Each structure stands twice: as structure tokens, then as C-alpha cells.
Amino acid sequence: MNDDQEHLARALRTLAHREPATPAPVSELVRRGRQARRRRTVAGAVAGTGLLSAALVVALGTAGLGPAATPPASTAVAVAPHSRASHPPGSRSLDARSVLLAAAETAAREPATSGRFWYVRERTTKPARYLPKGGNPMRGTPFSATVATTQDTWYPSDRGASSRTVTGQDPKVAFASAADEARWRRLGSPALAPEKPSTNDHDMDLSFLIGNHRFPIGKLLELPTTKDTLESRFRRLYDEESPSDWSPAKPEFGEYVWSAARDLLAGPISPGTRSALYRLLAEQREIRSQGQVTDALGRTGVALALPGTGTGESAGEFRLIVDDGTAELLAYEFRSPGESEPTLQVSYEDMGWVDDLGDRPRD
Asked: Which regions span the lipid bilayer (predicted)?
């Protein structure tokens, strides 16, 4: 970091902290069948001068970091060890709106790229589950452990072309305590992770989702590139959604945008669409900034969180971690109510366009 960037970063860290507004009610976000949905990664490394510097420009140019009637969405919080706060206690964090507007500025400067396949490498950590010898799944596992595996995916840009997934790579099991491991051993040490990776070629389009609407890559690249037109498209799609396709109820529009962003920011959307989506997210008042954290891979980014106030799987906190130097999406996390550790972590290790199945992006 040069002297000018250091001055900008220091000035940003001294921006006045404001108390967050009370979170608006958030309905359940998990629609029927959503458990089987794959998580995907952001489109490429985003060029620019850095999100922190861009955020300072946005903050100084927007009359108090947001509309007068809009409470800032910023808070300083204690976070779990796997997403440790990387700023010292008492430091101040920029509100979510300014972080997202800065990300929009950075994304807009990224040149458009293309290829025959969009490649994603993701590392997923989730609670361990197993089938007893009787074959019937247990409602609750008698021990606490997590399983982490890596998946590679190649999404074709040409409609009808083959796709590929390589799953179950580098499995790691971590028990919450020695007592949990002992309970697992007393059960006969059942397998909790795949024994070896599995390579699967598919003769079908792998789509991204906006609600229940499927978008293959070709359609994804045609999405609007301005905030207003993208919002209009989202509202039309939202109005077409059937309440019966959501459990227990159709979400509010802001929640719908957040849910879609988790997928679209992980796909090869154009720089203009990515910028527009960040701007649309900036208008959603429920989103909160939790300051700088580190993800499961040890990378530093800004945590943006959406509180869940429903029941079941959606009661908890949903979090996106964005690189504060590039606006790249680093990870997605979910925390169950009352839990300090994430229930689900998806860390995006690598992504980008390639020309052949099996290829990986070059640095």
C-alpha cells in the first residue's frame, strides 16, 4: 500500500460509527427443494483501486453515507473464531450501503471477459451426517462434527454443451471435542466423508437462480446493466413468483434480491450487471455491515449480514464476505440462532473463464 492509499484507509477507519436500526422482520428464505442447490462463485477478480479507497470517496460524496431518512446499516460485533474480526476492538466500520456502493464502483471498472466454460472451485464446510446401519437417517447426530470438501465445476457457456463436476476432494472431518470423537468411535467410526473424489460429466445446462427462475449462462449475460432496469426485471420476476413455491411464505422483495445475489454474484455476470446488483443491494435496509472478518481460508474481507427472524433453516444469520480490496465475493456463511460458529461455510477458492473441460484459470 502506498502513502496515499494508507492515508485514505486511515481516514476511512476514522469515519464516525453510527448505531444500526432495528432489523426489519425477515421471512424464511429457504424455498422448497432449495437444500439441493449448489453454491457458486463470483465472476473473476475485480480490478480497481480498492474497495476501502472507493468507499471513502462514496462516503464523502453522499451527504452522510445515505438518504436522510435511511438509517445506516453498520455495527461493530464480536464474531466467531472462524470469522474473526480483523480490526481492533473499538474500531469503526463503514455502513453496508457505502460498502456496497464502493463495490459497485469497483465492479464497473472490470473489463468484460469470456470463454467456453465458467470454472469454480469452492470449499464447503457443513455439519457431519451419517446413516446408521439400519439405513434410516437420524433426526439428530449423537456427536458434533463438521465435514469440509472441495468441488470443481465447469459451467458451459454454449447451450446444450456438457458440464462437469469433481466432488468430494480433500475431505477433512473436525470434531467439536474429544468427547464427540469418542461417541463417533463407539458407533463404529462410520464414514462421514467420501472415500475418494467423484468426476461427473453432465449433458445438461447448469443454471443460476433468481427465485424460482432459472438462468443459464447465455441468459445470465443478458441481464440489465443499470440499477433501475435490473430492479424492474427483478420486480417482474418477483411478481411472477407463486407463493406456493416458497415455504412457509413468499419473501419480501429485499429478501428476494439478497437470495438472488448469492447466486448471481457467484456467476459470470457482466461487469455492468454486477455493478447494478451491488447498487440494488445497497438500497436494501435490512443488510448490515459487520466490519472486517477473516473467512474459513484466512482471507480478510467485509462481512455483510442479513438477519433471519423465521423458524427452521432460515432462522439465523446469512452472511456474505466481500474482499475489501477487489470487491470479489470470498465466502457465504449461515449461522443458526444462538450459534457462534457458522452452520454452513462456502469459500470460493478460484474462478474464471476457461476454454476446455478440466482447464483452470491462469493467474
From this structure: 41-65
- Alpha-carbon distance of 185 to 181, in angstroms, equals 6
Domain layout of the chain by residue ranges: 38-354
Q: What is the pLDDT of residues 212-254, one digit of tens each?
A: 999 999 999 999 999 999 999 999 999 999 999 988 789 899 9
How many degrees, rounded to 5, is the angle at CA 207 between CA 259 and CA 158? Answer: 145
Grid cell at residue 122: 469452492
Residue 156, beta-bridge partner list: 117
Task: Determine whether 170 is exposed, middle or buried from the number of CB atoms within 10 Å of its CB (0-12, 13-18, 19+).
Answer: exposed
Closest by CA position to 266, among listed 199, 184, 195, 321: 321
Tell me the residue type at 233: R
Taking the C-alpha atoms of residue 340 and residue 320, their distance in angstroms, rounded to an integer, is: 16
Contacts of 25 (CB under 8 A, 6+ apart): 309
Distance CA 188, CA 359 (A): 40
